[in-house]
Structure formats: structure tokens, C-alpha cells
Design a protein that fits this description.
Four Helix Bundle (Hemerythrin (Met), subunit A)
């Protein structure tokens, strides 16, 4: 089963709520988002203990294990991007092909992924602890502009949305 790559520009979630998952960008406390991400880890641990965690519900949808691997990587990617924004003036983020990264997600050990999620959430949260200027800019290669504030909101949508995707 091959997943069709998601080519949508999800930056609209910075301006309005997501009807699918209920995310409200204006309600995110960016200074507390690291702790919010950590608080999601037990929910992912429960997902990873489910029977059938490797099974895709249909041809176009990741399995809960694959979503968990993706979330682990999202936490690390956004921690890295936030560090780039803190340390450099207006950096362009390296491209990340989430679909290429997902190539071997199904082969991962769910227990190992659960542990890695905790470490990734810690890395994500650690970046928030040292941000002093929430207006620093950064850019995706397609030109989408972010600030340290908006990139946190964008990342939090990803985390909330994927919990919704796996009914957690």
C-alpha cells in the first residue's frame, strides 16, 4: 500500500481553526507548548500498545505506528528549526521530505518509538526554554515565512492533528 504524498500547504492553520481536529491557533501558549508536547507522550504510548498498531486502516492512511514515528520526527525537526531561528538571522530551513522519511516507519519497534517520543518531546520542550525573542524569522524553501511564535503554533497543530488521526 502506497500513501499518496500530502502536498497541501497547511500554513492556513496559523490563521483559523482546523475543522478536522479542532485545533485553535490562538489558544496556544507558546511558552508552555513544550510541556503540552510532553503531556501528549502518554497518549502516544497508549496508541503504541494497541493491538494492530502496524495495520493501516486503508490504502491511503498511515498506521498508528507510522503516525507515531512521524510525530517523533516532527518534534525533532521543529526543535531543530527553532534552534536555527534562535541562532541565525532569517534562516532557510533544510527541506524535509516527510514521505521519504516514512519509508521504513512500519518496520520500527513500537516500544522503541514510545521511548523515542519521550526524548523527542524533551528536545522540543528544551528549545522553548531558551527562546527569548518570539518574533525571530525563519523560512521554508517555498518562501513560507514563520516567526518563532508561529512555528510553535504550526508544530502544535501537527501534534494535535495526528492524535486526532489515531483517535487518541
Amino acid at each position: 500500500m502506497t500513501i499518496i504524498p500530502d502536498t497541501k500547504d497547511w500554513t492556513w492553520v496559523l490563521e483559523r481553526s482546523c475543522e478536522e481536529c479542532g485545533f485553535e491557533p490562538g489558544t496556544v501558549d507558546v511558552r508552555g507548548a513544550g510541556e503540552d508536547a510532553r503531556a501528549m507522550v502518554p497518549r502516544w504510548e497508549s496508541v503504541l500498545e494497541r493491538e494492530g498498531v502496524r495495520e493501516r486502516p486503508d490504502d491511503g492512511t498511515w498506521s498508528p505506528l507510522e503516525y507515531a514515528c512521524h510525530v517523533r520526527d516532527v518534534l525533532l525537526i521543529f526543535a531543530e528549526r527553532l534552534a536555527l531561528m534562535r541562532e541565525h538571522d532569517g534562516p532557510e530551513f533544510p527541506n524535509w521530505d516527510q514521505d521519504a522519511a516514512a519509508g521504513d516507519y512500519a518496520a520500527h519497534d513500537p516500544a522503541a518509538v514510545a521511548a523515542e517520543l519521550g526524548s523527542a518531546a524533551d528536545a522540543f520542550a528544551a528549545e522553548f526554554a531558551v527562546v527569548q525573542d518570539w518574533s525571530r524569522p525563519g523560512y521554508r524553501s517555498n518562501g513560507s515565512a514563520f516567526t518563532t511564535d508561529s512555528i510553535v503554533r504550526y508544530a502544535m497543530h501537527d501534534l494535535v492533528h495526528h492524535l486526532h488521526d489515531v483517535d487518541a
